[in-house]
Each structure stands twice: as C-alpha cells, then as structure tokens.
Specification:
Layout (H helix, E strand, L loop, with lengths): L1 H38 L1 H10 L1 H15 L6 E6 L2 E2 L3 E4 L2 E3 L1 H13 L2 E6 L5 H7 L4 E2 L7 H4 L2 E3 L4 E10 L7 H5 L7 E4 L3 H10 L4 E4 L2 H10 L4 E5 H10 L3 E3 L5 E5 L2 E3 L3 H16 L2 H9 L2
Parallel strand pairs: 1-5, 1-6, 9-10, 9-11
Antiparallel strand pairs: 2-3, 3-4, 6-14, 7-14, 8-11, 8-12, 8-13
Helix pairs in contact: 1-3, 2-3, 4-11
The structure holds arginine.
C-alpha cells in the first residue's frame, strides 16, 4: 500500500511539473510574438498595407507595447472644380494644389489620397478627422481660424469679378452704388460668398455648388456678375464666350492648408515641407507649369 501511494504521488508530481512547463512555454511564445511585433513596427505597417484585416490583427497583437499602427497614407480634402488649383484630367485630380500636396506627402513618407467633396464641407471633414488636411485654394480667414489651423501660405489669391462683355457693371464700385441691386453668383461657402453676402445682402447673392455653375448662370442671365478667385476666373472666362474680368479686384487673400486644431505635429511637418519646397524652387516650378 505504501509502495502504491509512493508511485501514485510520483505520477502526480510528473503531471504537475509537465503542465506547469507547458504553461510557461505558452506564456513565453506569447511574449515572443508581442515582442516581435513591438520591435518591428515597420513590419506592422507593411502588414497593414497588405490588407485591412491583416492590419487590424497586427495592430491588436502589438497592443499597448507598439502603440497604434501609423497609416501609410495621408488624405487631402479638396473640391476639384477649381482650375488651375485642382481639377479633373480624365479621372485624375491634377493642378497646383494636387502637385504641391504630392510633394508634401513625399516628404512625410506617405502616399497621398485625394478626396473630392463640396467646398463647403471641407472644414468639417478636417475637424472631424475623416481627412488629414484640406487644400483647395482655401483662403485664410479669421473666422475659419476658429475652426481649423492653417499652415504658412503657399500662394496668393484675388477675388475677381466676372461680367458679360456688355455689362453695365464696369468696376467694383458699381456694385456698391446707391440703389444698385445686382445679383451676384458665387460658389457656396467660399470667401466670394461670405464677403458678398456681407456687403450686398443674402437676397442679392446666389450660391452655386461649383464655380462653373455660377458662370453658366451669368451666361444664361440669371446673375449679373460672378465673384470668384482670379485664376479660376481666367480659366472660366477662357472657356465661355462673351465674358470678361473687371480690372478692379474685390479682395486680396492668402491660400493655405488647413488641419484639425490640436494637430500640431502634422502642421509642423507640413510647414517644414512648404519651407523646403519654397526654398528649393519646387513650388514656383509647379505654379509656373499651370499659370503662364
Ligand atoms: N479662395 C476661396 C475660399 O477659400 C475659394 C476656394 C474654392 N476652392 C475650391 N477648390 N473650389 O473660399
């Protein structure tokens, strides 16, 4: 009986030791996996690139050790009906902003993705974080600065006035003249819209989703003039007969990129890229390609 008990005890001890070792092994291999991912964040990024599922798994495995997997893309919101800053060539968005953004993305080591949307929704998209930045020939204004942060300026813009060649409006002063009540066409949410609504009242301003729709309204006679940025104005006048741009401008402005408030790191990276691209002449060369 004693002998039987001794054997039983020995068998039990062997079992206990075995299962203990197994647990240690499992634990170790789990740790190794975690470390492998944590040590090699690049691999995680590549996996994420390979497909969304893989990316999610890698991210989860890495857990707190590796932090969140950094995205390999950077998304820009724009409104691609604004030649020569952003417009479609076939199904590709090209233009000054698109090319400068491409160079900035390169400097940040990211692949640029461009999302085309209504101009009036860009700032909200940036605020909500559904995109990383907005770039759309966007004017820096005090009001917008309350919602987003702006980079240093990379271009100047001028609000111009387009009229029919035989228009009674001959200068910007005619719009302000006593008793004048001209209908002004604008693109919704632009500074042309905001300023002219302030100056001439809501009833005299008609908002269109795109600049060219405002110009078509001018051609068709439902508005008396269109207030829009000078370069797009030139492009639109070239594309439509019987129109001209008044010599006097309506407003002078600076264009910049906007990012969500509190995104100081991205803003600093974008500003550093703009500085470099200005100094080495890249921005000038891009602008010269589109504006002769
Ligand atoms: N500069 C003007 C603004 O900021 C008009 C910009 C319109 N841009 C565009 N991509 N449609 O309001």
């Amino acid at each position: 009986m004693k002998k039987f008990l001794a054997v039983l005890l020995a068998v039990l001890m062997v079992f206990a030791v075995c299962s203990c070792e197994k647990k240690v092994e499992e634990q170790q291999s789990e740790n190794e996996e975690t470390e492998a991912v944590a040590d090699n964040p690049e691999e995680t990024a590549e996996e994420a690139d390979a497909g969304e599922d893989a990316g999610e798994d890698a991210g989860e495995d890495a857990g707190e050790d590796a932090g969140e997997t950094e995205s390999t893309t950077i998304t820009m919101a724009t409104n691609a009906y604004f030649k020569p800053y952003e417009y479609y060539e076939g199904d590709k968005i090209v233009g000054i902003d698109a090319e400068i953004a491409e160079e900035i993305a390169k400097k940040l080591g990211k692949e640029l993705v461009i999302e085309d949307m209504e101009f009036s929704t860009i700032i909200t998209a940036v605020q909500e974080g559904s995109v990383d930045f907005g770039m759309a020939g966007m004017t820096v204004t005090e009001e917008r600065k309350e919602s987003v942060d702006f980079s240093s300026s990379y271009a100047n813009g001028v609000q111009s006035i387009i009229v029919k060649e035989d228009s009674p409006i001959t200068s910007v002063d005619d719009l302000y003249a006593d008793g004048a009540s001209f209908k002004v066409g604008v693109q919704l949410g632009t500074t042309g819209d905001i300023y002219s609504t302030d100056d001439f009242g809501e009833d005299n301003v008609i908002q269109y989703s795109k600049g060219n729709e405002a110009v078509l309204a001018l051609v068709g006679g439902s508005v008396d003039c269109v207030i829009i940025d000078d370069e797009p104005a030139k492009a639109l006048v070239a594309e439509n007969e019987g129109l001209k741009i008044l010599d006097t401008s309506y407003a002078d402005e600076d264009y910049a990129i906007c990012v969500a408030k509190g995104n100081g790191e991205l803003l600093a990276d974008i500003n550093a890229a703009i500085d470099e691209l200005t100094l080495d002449g890249t921005i000038d060369a891009i602008v010269a390609k589109y504006i002769k």
